[in-house]
Amino acid sequence: MATMLIDGQTVGAQTGKTIEVRNPANGEIVDTIPKGSASEVDAAVEAAAKALPAWASLSGTKRAAFIEATRVAENLEFFAGFADKLRGDYVPLEDQNKFGLTMRRPVGVVVAITPWNFPLTLMANKVCPALAAGCTVVLKPASTTPLATQKTIEIINSVGIPAGVLNTVHGPGAEIGDALVSHPKVNKIAFTGQTETGKRIMKLAAENVTRVTLELGGSDPMIVCDDADIRRATAATAIGRFFNAGQACLAVKRVYLFEQIAEEFMTKIADRARKEWPVGDGLKEGVKMGPLHTERQRAEVESQVADAVKRGAKVLAGGKRPEGKEFEKGWYMEATVLRDVPEDSRMATEEVFGPALPIFIVKDLDDAIAKANASVYGLGSSIWTKDLAKARKAAELLEAGYTWINDIQVAYDQLPFGGTKQSGFGKEHGIEGLDGYLEKKSVVLAY
Ligand code: NAD
Q1: How many CB atoms lie within 10 A of CB 263?
Q2: Per CATH, which fold does 4-216+423-446 belong to?
Q3: What is the model's pTM?
Q4: CATH 3.40.309.10: does it fit domain 220-412?
Q5: Among all residues, which ones are annotated catalytic?
Q6: Dihedral sign computed on CA atoms, order 29, 34, 37, 40
Q7: Does 401 sit in the ligand 1 pocket, CB within 6 Å?
Q8: Is the CB of 400 under 6 A from ligand 1?
């Protein structure tokens, strides 16, 4: 059985309760984890609070050495490099015998809450800058995918990070989430997950004025202009929608085609969906798309597709579960493409977190941008064109934290990443990724 990490010790739940972690390809139990309760949340936050003063005052060079030693991810390396380069400013003041300084101090105890779809990357996006900044951390991964996260945290911790600096607590968000978010000793919540959960966290955090960064849902639009390279655009669309069985925050979730290239594009993307995305157990040779995460997740995507079809959309590829004995126990769905999708259907207005792509046709760039922006979300976006004027207009006007031009959804460590509108706020990655973990403090020195 996996464990939690609290105050340097790997521990089970005091209640003895556990959660089963299942393989979505066949429903088999992979392992179990302890089911934490409010008392473990309290122990972990207390440990992080106790460890904070020493960790925060350790020199950046020493903090960097701890983080660097693990080398489990580029993210660790990126932020470890910053730990000894954090600095403030000298500011002249109007008073002759005084001057000002700004310092950057760690915000304190950080609660990091992560979803199931990229458990390690999204953990690293929070834990690495937090530790580099001198914060201590209580991490709660999703209870369906906690195993790789727990192992990685134990490896990071094993380089000798002082007890209490890095802690994990496991349990369903609905049960221990409130205890974590409302704990009075927590100074910051770094959350990635659904918009609805983010709204709840933001409300609860307001009670103690705990700062939050929220990386939430998205419904990224892709605009394909009449001068686009259709072969490259369709290849990118297929990866953008079917990678990780469509369960990615940054993904091609709505496609807006100029009329002139619409038929050619739709024929090609449907062809790719049918031929290039064989479904099956992700551990098997030749499989390109694995199952969805849970039965509920598949049912949600299926109902979004059914809603579009009921309102007149046509299925160009997929649209159903694959048939055969090997698919009976997993949450599989074929790579799906739909055209004539109504703009008020669920596929257009909600986040589709699975391998189903709605296609819309637009008159021109203004029409495309208006429709792309007619979403509560604003995470990623992309445009395919050879015309720099069109590309620039899209980059300026698309309401999103990222716009790719003739490319899609790869988020670079060097560039700040984060949403606008109901996709959240606050940046991960880039130098800006540290800002959420540092407080800028002003100091006046009189002499
Ligand atoms: P989720 O909101 O259901 O859960 C995310 C985490 O929050 C889990 O650890 C969960 O246990 C916890 N949680 C649930 N309820 C809670 C509560 N009341 N208080 C505190 N914690 C609680 O999200 P999910 O289904 O695991 O993840 C998928 C969603 O995440 C999608 O909407 C996706 O777009 C989004 N996402 C966003 C990004 C991004 O960077 N913007 C990245 C990946 C995923």
Answers
A1: 12
A2: Aldehyde Dehydrogenase; Chain A, domain 1 (3.40.605)
A3: 0.91
A4: yes
A5: 215, 249
A6: negative
A7: no
A8: no
